[in-house]
Amino acid sequence: MTASPRVLAAACLLVTCLLVGPAAAQEEEMELPLFIPPIVAPISRDTDGDGLPDIWETDGYTSGGTFVDLPGLGADPRHKDLFVWMDYMVKDETSLAPTQQVIDNIKAVFANAPVDNPDGATGVTIHPILKNQAPYKESLGVKGDDDSVWADFDAIKNNSFEAAYAKSFRYMIWANSYQESSSSGLARNIPATDFIVSLGTFTPEGGTRWEKLGTFIHELGHTLGLTHGGSDDLNYKPNYLSIMSYTFQMTGLYRNGQFGEDGFPLYFDYQRMDTPTLNENSLNENLGLTGAGDVSTYGTIFWYLSDGTCKSQNVANANQAIDWNLDGVIETGVAMGLHCDEDDPTDEKTTLTTQNNWKHLNYSAGGLIGPSISPIQRQRRLKEPTPASLKRELDWETYQRLRQSLRSPAP
Ligand SMILES: [Ca+2]
Ligand SMILES: [Ca+2]
Ligand SMILES: [Ca+2]
Ligand SMILES: [Ca+2]
Ligand SMILES: [Zn+2]
Question: Which end of the chain has fewer CB within 10 Å, C or N?
Fold first, then answer.
């Protein structure tokens, strides 16, 4: 197709208009062609799909008079980047901030991701940047009131986080507690840009390096669109090999007979392959977790109802037959509940599906990151209520119960 000189001239004007801002755009409005998509595309082009336009990654951007130097911070237009601004509280003498070791482990988990990039290398470059100490607050928000959590959160955020960064960064606080609970953390929504890690009431205060690592990646996962069940909110599924399941949040995945906390930071991973659907009404024990992605080296845990409580069973090798009903016989047509939840210990048998998490990350948090969202739209998004699936994040008491079960010898 050929464009007339007049259309080309108008198109050039448009590019200028977009670069110099809305006032100029208004003046030139009558000159603009009606059909403009080919002209607009390059300005927002995002070659690597991380939600950050190429131009921001090569040149940075200015918003409200503040220059955000993404290239200076290591952004690459041909490799996925994920920026996280981290503030932290200090409780008595104890900083709740992560050590450099934890930060390095977070980076390693994302660098190890099975995610392709235009530069030909795999992985995601995460930039967890430790910024400001926040004023200490025993609890963000009061018991049972979601809005009060985010009101307290925003008071700290607005005092520290420069507004220009909202277009390219997630924001989180290493805090003591929220809603006066022992819950380990909270994301603002699924997906979202805001989250909390709240291990201040744990023992030791602020959690171990593994609890910090797992909880950070878990809550960040919610902000990237991931859920407790992968395809849904069902927790504790044995075919969900992800630290988005409470089974693995604090200990990491179970591989080669060991948990992440036994010294393997890369096991604090999102699910990186497909796993087979399990029909709790009719399980074929011969298959174990085979039949979809490669699960060699992986073990798993399942939870079953026994005398009204949930008991766990470790499976060292998920790449072979699994005796789901623990009767010593490998068989087909087995009916067995496999994801018993102590807080909701019904034994309804359903079909358990999961998700290859890394293939489904929502880098832009549904547009909160990137050039398109308006301040009004952002405010509306931030005001959305906390989803039901985040109402009861893994707390200290539940975690201790899980630990006791996971770490006790098999019967
Ligand atoms: Ca990009
Ligand atoms: Ca990038
Ligand atoms: Ca059996
Ligand atoms: Ca079930
Ligand atoms: Zn969660």
Answer: N
Identify which ligand lies nearest to the alpha carbon of 49.
1
* The last residue of a domain, from among 323, 339, 354: 354
Q: Are 322 and 334 in contact (CB under 8 A)?
A: no
Give the Cα separation of 33 and 158 in Å (integer).
Answer: 41
Domain closes at, from 354, 387, 406? 354
Q: What is the pLDDT of residues 254-295, one digit of tens each?
A: 999 999 999 999 999 999 999 999 999 999 999 999 999 999
CATH, residue 384:
3.40.390
Buried b (16+ CB within 10 A) or exposed e, 358-385: beebbbbbbebbbbebeeeebeebbeee
Rounded to 5 degrees, what are φ and ψ at 110? -75, -35
Could you tell me the CA-to-CA distances from 107 to 93, 217, 222, 313, 368 in Å, in that order? 27, 10, 18, 31, 23
Instruction: Report the pLDDT value the prediction gives residue 75, as an integer from 0 to 100.
Output: 98
Residues 70 and 186 in one domain: yes
336 and 363 part of one domain: no
On whether both 340 and 254 belong to a single domain, the answer is: yes
Give the global pTM: 0.90
Question: What count of other Cβ atoms lies within 10 Å of the Cβ of residue 115?
Answer: 21
Given a cut of 60, whether residue 2 has pLDDT beyond it is: no
Task: Judge whether 255 lies within some domain.
Answer: yes
378 CA distance to ligand 5 middle (Å): 23
Task: Count the domains in the chain.
Answer: 3
Residue 37 belongs to what domain range? 5-44
Q: Which two tokens stand for residue 201?
A: 């009431």
Q: How many residues does the chain have?
A: 411
Residue 406 located in a structural domain = no
Count the alpha carbons within 13 Å of 316 in the hemisphere toward its beta carbon: 5
Q: Judge if 211 and 346 occupy the same domain.
A: no
Task: For residue range 307-320, list pLDDT tens digits in order.
Answer: 888 999 999 999 99
Residue 23: the pLDDT is: 41
Same-domain check for residues 26 and 77: no
Q: What ligand is nearest to the CA atom of residue 338?
A: 4
pLDDT of residue 344: 76
Termini Cα distance of the chain: 74
Asked if 399 and 250 touch (Cβ cutoff 8 Å), the reply is yes
User: 76 CA to middle of ligand 2, Å?
Assistant: 4
* 37, amino acid identity: P
What is the model's pLDDT at position 407? 72
